[in-house]
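New to this. Comment on this protein:
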Amino acid sequence: MVGFPLLLIPLAIYNIIVFLMPGVSLAEPIVKLTLMSGAEWPLTLSDMLLALGIVLLLFEVIRGARPGAKYLTDHLLSLIIFGGAVAEFLLWPRFGSSTYFLLALLALVDFLSGIALRARRGAQGASAAPRGARRPAIVTPEAKPEPQFADPPPVREVPAAASVAESVLLDHPQPKTVDPDIAAASPSPEVSSPELQPGSGPPRPADGPH
């Protein structure tokens, strides 16, 4: 939002007095104030305009010192007001007075103070930005962390079918074949009972009592 230039108020009052009230004199005292010392201070209309201009300039400086205040349009308006005041002071006879010159000087001070405050805020913001801002971390391809994966669960070793069959064959050896010649030559095992000797036939029944 564009702020209203306060220094326009005393300049507008001076223009109203010059164009609409030509019989009013700015140098004639309006009132006389008696000070504590006993001296009388004559207060003229020009003194009142200058005092009003100084107070309004103070408000302009305070408003321009706030953060984010005084847009570029405000500075442009202050420059236009100062240019118009200088043009009236140089071109119009009734504006060629010390009072109007001082009012134009106040308008110049308003414009220059706004520019100086804006430049100071910009310099402070530029100097404070690297301190508070964090620089973004630059990740190079070499420094890029590799993705980490969880270790797979241990896999049980399943014995192959060939190894299983081989172990079975080793546990159960094949039956040995006996040569018939060797079997005939080898004596038959003897049994303690003579009836059970090989080749003796079935055992006889025992003779009962006659």
